[in-house]
Amino acid sequence: MTARQLAAILQVSESTVHRLARKGRIPSIRITPRITRFHLRSVSEALDGSKRSRRHGGDEAEDTAQLSLPNLFT
Question: Could you give the CA distance from residue 21 to residue 1 in angstroms, rounded to a whole number?
Answer without folding.
Answer: 13
